[in-house]
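The following record pairs a protein chain with its ligand, glutamine.
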Amino acid sequence: MCRHLGWLGAQATVSSLVLDPPHSLRVQSYAPRRQKHGLMNADGWGVGFFDGFSDCQVPRRWRSSAPLWADVSFDSIAPALRSHCVVAAVRSATVGMPIEASATAPFTDGHWLLSHNGVVDRAVLPLSSSAESVCDSAILAATIFARGLDMLGETVVQIAAADPDARLNVLAANGSRLLATVWGDTLSILRRDDGVVLASEPYDDVYDWEDVPDRHFVEVTAVGVTLTSLDYPKGS
Ligand code: GLN
């Protein structure tokens, strides 16, 4: 399983979210603490963030198939990258999947940034000519983009029904909404005064992180955080 992190809030530097904390994604790339599948995340990394204001936000990405801990150049640039909305990931490739930058999250459709922490049988996903890679996560991202992010929870439940072994922790953002599903792996929430972090595992032991139960959908907006069970229809 990979590890991912999302941020929605005030402008923050990418380094403060991804590199600096004691158990940041950089540390999780070689020493994750809650990873259930795989020992480390050495098969690439990606950082995406939204640039611009209100209805004119552009997703920008930097992805690599090398380990995050080995990237000395990013260390110098990350403190200069600031955004109110970030999606970042470090990757442990599933057996048989290509190791290449295009297979590394975050994926995008030009409006959303999306990361997948898990595995899914590609046979249960529709064929997609818009997937960025043949990697399961890239095809899953194309499927979710095609269905629309308003259907994210329903899409995850349907794919899990078709592939009961699938693990489907998805994290997605569009600059004003940060969405996540928890289906088979860990996710924690940190509610800070200046915004909200969703992360596969806490990046420190200082603050009060909340663990999200399995089979839940999380939505973060400027209004707040909502958690919905994916086992039951919304509202029940
Ligand atoms: N299955 C995806 C891949 O191969 C994600 C793997 C993961 O979560 N470790 O990249």
